[in-house]
User: What shape does this take?
Amino acid sequence: MNSTKVGPRTVVTLIIVGVLLIVGGFLISQATPLIFPVEASAEARQIDQLFRIALLIGGAIFLLVQGLLAYSVWRFRARAGDLSDGPNIHGNTTLEIVWTAIPAVIVVVLTVLSYSVWTSIQSVKPDEQAVEVQGARFNWAFTYSTPDPRDSSKTLSFKSTELHTYIGRPVRLEMRTQDVIHSFWVPAMRIKQDVIPGRVTEYRFTPVEAAGETYPARYPIQCAELCGAEHGNMIAWVVVHQTEDDYTAWFNQEVDKVLNPPADPVVRGEGILASQVYPCHTCHVLNTETLQWAGNVGPALNGVGDRAAGPRSTATGLSAADYLYQSIHEPNAYLAPGFGPLMPQLNIPECETRSIVAYLCTLTSSGQPACTVELPPECGAGAPPEATPEATAEGTPESSFDPSAPPSGEGASNPTPEATAPAADVTAEATAAP
Amino acid sequence: MASISVPVGGVPTQAAPRPRLRASDFLRWSVDHKIIGVQYMVTSFVFFLVGGTLAMLIRWELLTPNLDLVQTGSQYNSLFSVHGLVMIFLWIIPMFAGFGNYLVPLMLGAKDMAFPWLNAFAFWLIPPAGILMLGSMLVGAPEAGWTQYPPLSTLFSGDGQTLAALAVHLLGISSILGAINFIVTIKNMRPAGMSYWQMPLFVWAILATSIIVVMATPFLAGGLTLLILDRIAGTTFFDANRGGDVLLWQNVFWFYSHPAVYIMVLPGMGVLSDVLTTHSRKPIFGYKMVALSSLAIALVGFTVWAHHMFTSLQPALRIPFMITSMIIAVPTGIKIFSWLGTIWGGKIRFTSAMLFSLGFLSMFVIGGITGVMLAMIPFNLHVHDTYFVVSHLHFVLFGGSVFAIYSGIYHWFPKITGRMLNERLGRWHFVLTYLGFFFTFFPMHFIGMLGMPRRVAVYLPEFQGLNTIASISSFVLGLSTFLLVINVIISLRNGRIAGANPWRSLTLEWATTSPPPATNFIGDPVMFPDPYGYGMPEAAAYLESIDRQFGAPARPPVTDKPAPGVTVVESGD
Amino acid sequence: MQGELSERPLTPQELLDLKNKRTGLAIFQFTWILVFVCLMFVHWWIRGQSPVWPPEGVAKHGVLVPTIMTLALVASSFSARHANHAMKADDRDTFFRHWRIMIGLGALFVLVMAVEWLLVPVSGQYSNLFRVLVGFHGVHALAIGAFLLRVYRNARAGAYSARHFWPVEAAAGLWYFVTVAWILFYVVLYWS
Assistant: This one.
């Protein structure tokens, strides 16, 4: 135990043990492919590399401590009948300095490495694809914006429940929440960022080609911050296309859906609900031929047309259509008996709200719609995009993000204006909800 | 310390009154610190069983990827919320308060704590708080986790959330009153001749813990007051839509709750220092470093809170918290290596108390390593709020604190009751706990890294294999607890008579009868100058005089042969 | 110094008890003042959420009345100190005079701040913070004020002397605590 008596034998033993520990730590660190999901982003590669170093060091310390423990337990066990004490040794200053200094050096190294990786993964990348993310109990929605092909002074945006991107294109997410704190986590990308009420948070990643992957590849997005009953089901998907062309094809298809919605508001409303860009399905029950919702937070929607025309209309003094409209736009103005004020203001644009009302009116026992909704002409095919109430209401505080800016400087990833309807059909439309 | 003269002798008191304790003594108000200590321990153990039952239900639910045991996600959320709250605030913290209450006055040779009445009052806050906490499950159970993040806990939770917050508030006040009592007792009531540097390390640990409690708990009290007001009085401190901020809660909460981790671990480290020395018959290696590292952990612990918020904190603020979180690994490392230095070269007795302390060393180091990994921001971004964190915190709080509690129970049960626990059952208890614990929580590292978030009742099917291993092991772990319960019940009646000092320990709590009389000591206790003076020639004479004065054990309790299979367990991981 | 003199007849055990109580009270004052510090921190955090403070269109709290009340509270603390010392010197007349002044000024403070609390116009976070901070302090002032009254009643019955003065010292110590806590809030609410 005394540092003055370190002989050659001790030195050799220490060297052998040290080498064994490093080799052991290295072997442990090679287990990482088994304990990580695929490395689907540039950030994942950096973080995994950092973790391998940490695991090498941690593994060596693990082996050292468990080894010393096992060796001591075997070597220094009291023999049968031995009631004597051990040696009266109170410490060894050299040794104590060593085992203070070595951990200190290790944490300094890990801190420096972590710092450099972290600055790298959070740095602004050139040519980032900007996508807006809305977290709501209990789903994710992604809003893509592009200059309106019919009127380039306006912005056309559409929502998707999947986050589409392609290999090599840095993505920057602007994230907001409708209600509680959520956390956006793509295990395959390794990064996580909370989505916080009253704030806009950012998340960056750059998809890379993963070994052995077939494209388009789909990676789960998990909510990682407890957000309520269906927290575990709050899963969406990142779709990584192999090439920019594949991505553009998808993008144009979505733009086309926006430009040419179904003429019948009932069909259109059903389509909106079925797309699940709004989180209705996570809280309501609805069983139809096309929709199978099993939420258990809000009232069931089967037969909601009957109730809207009957008891609810009596209770609120509103017509069935107005009642349903109010239920969507001011969900807490009137609460269905037995339910609390849990539904958020989802900021659904006017035309979409009306279409949803039209569809809900058809949910009656008789099959006869409880109301009929006429969409104003500006909601029709080829109409210009609607500014969402959210965008108009929240434009000022989050000025750092400009949804009207084109997603990229090159514009190559966006659909070209020529591909879509002529700009002549554009007419202005009232935006805010009444 | 070369030449010390130990006053040996005293009157051999075969007639030393060994108090007979009745169960009813523990059911009513008492200001005797020993009775209060036992009241703390038994009460918190009952809550441990409650919290453990909730944990079993959680693991049962997680056997399959879908909802099966519970009907809704809400029910699952309330299971783990109450599990966390109960285990932290009603089990580990009050359990160590119980150890402290029983042992600190004895270790200091004092008759009682500084404020006996306050001591009893602090304890009697716990049962109503516990009832409030469990009652919260009946009126809209808390569903926001033990962290109670708003707005989930304010705008989206049932009334149970208010009751749970109130319960935690009461427990916080109880813990502040207890800590004031400890600090005053330790500062003012040490016997003449015992400097701070001669206190047993358990007392050092309680001192450091109490300093944390009085500095951190007020912030919990303030935060909970505002949370309750937000819920019942219409204020909007945590409502972002009305001028509040949800991150305010996170900062205030973690400013208490990170130090609270050390409130839960430091006393366990104190237990370890006493148990390892006694059962390996060797002085603590580097007394001052071990004592000072407790203080260092206590103080640095106040600067690391935001590492729980790496995914919500403003990016620029994350770096300083990474640095402090890394720094705190150094004093923790000092402790671990000091303990290894302590057993190195000793004469290790494989008593159950020793086994659990060795188990602590073996398991806690894993929690320490993953703690450093979690402090690395880039890696934290991946595993934050996943099962990796669940695993890490259980390695610290179960592999650390609970192993230390078990160790302390086997070590001090003879002093408290006058009877030994059954060592064979104890060894079984250790083996099952060690294996059950390891295989419950070690796979969770992988579950988390592979992509399963924490606090979910449903998960992607690919995680089922590892979850099944964890669940089945957890049932073993749960059942192993009953070996201790059975052991205590049997030994209370039929255990071997312990004598004053069955482990031949040199700290003062052993220099009196077991259990100690109402005044703790007969006459002035005689202190051995070095609480860890094992191997000193004077120690044998001192220990012999204790046996002569206060009663020798029925027969030497030290195991005749080393426990078989122990090295197998150690190499099992 | 007078206190030290009159302590001399105390037994070692009584001296130890007294030392314990003094240490305990000091730690309690320290730990519980931290709750007030926590609320100060909350105040700064919340006002940081708003671009201007007080928020647009909200009138600032008047400063004159609270300042006078703060002075009254500080004065009452000095009375507490005098009363405490008088009791240790067995000067009961001085004790009662100062104890009454302290209670009178304290009651005035509590009453006026209660009126302020009731009259503050509701204005979101600005009035919320005011009410919570002043209310939180007021609850402490009321509880400790009740203790002061009880000590007064017991003192009238002759319960305390230069040999048995701890309740008086404790009450005075708690009243200092109320004063210091208020000064913290006063600075935060009116001068920051």
